[in-house]
């Protein structure tokens, strides 16, 4: 027998060599399951990341609308404020706010801290996200007969 024939026959007949040659069906199945779990987890993380981006974008828009409404209130006279406990819906004004006005429910509510002298005004905005969950944000400020008190009370 020649040396080449001897080496070829040893490769084919050695059981340990054949076992090291590839993966078993169980190993392939375990690898496929692990890959599926990893890919599914990554897709879930991407979905959650997009949801958090959406929430951050909505919070930024709402904050801009609230600040704009508070700034508009600085021009109000005492008589422009509604009666105590009256809920008033409003449509945000301005280029940015008006383009997203249909996405948000905006309203103000006020009550008398000192009747005829000082009122507290709440500006609320609520909205639904892409997962149909409700969110809301509000600002509170105070008015006196002399005007808006810059977010805190100061005695005159």
The residue fraction in helices comes out at 40-55%
Number of domains: 1
Low-confidence parts: 152-156
Instruction: Tell me what portion of residues adopts beta-strand conformation.
Output: 15-25%
Give the total of beta strands.
5
Described by strand count, sense and barrel closure, the largest sheet is: 5 strands, antiparallel
H/E series: HHHEHEEEE
Q: What is the spatial order of strands in the main beta sheet?
A: 1-2-3-4-5
| Radius of gyration from the alpha-carbon trace, in angstroms | 34 Å
How many H/I helical runs? 4
What class do helices, strands and sheet pairing give? alpha+beta
What overall form do the CA principal axes indicate? rod-shaped
N- to C-terminal distance: 116 Å
Mean pLDDT: 81
């Amino acid at each position: 027998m020649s040396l080449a024939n001897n080496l070829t026959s040893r490769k084919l007949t050695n059981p340990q060599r054949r076992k090291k040659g590839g993966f078993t069906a169980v190993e392939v199945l375990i690898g496929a399951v692990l890959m599926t779990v990893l890919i599914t987890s990554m897709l879930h993380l991407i979905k959650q990341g997009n949801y958090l981006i959406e929430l951050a974008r909505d919070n930024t828009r709402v904050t801009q609308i609230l600040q704009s409404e508070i700034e508009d209130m600085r021009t109000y006279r005492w008589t422009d404020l509604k009666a105590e406990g009256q809920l008033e819906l409003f449509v945000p004004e301005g280029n940015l706010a008006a383009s997203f006005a249909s996405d948000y429910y905006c309203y103000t509510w006020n009550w008398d801290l000192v009747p005829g002298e000082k009122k507290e005004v709440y500006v609320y905005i609520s909205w639904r996200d892409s997962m149909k969950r409700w969110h809301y944000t509000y600002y509170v400020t105070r008015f006196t007969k002399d005007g808006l008190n810059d977010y805190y009370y100061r005695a005159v």
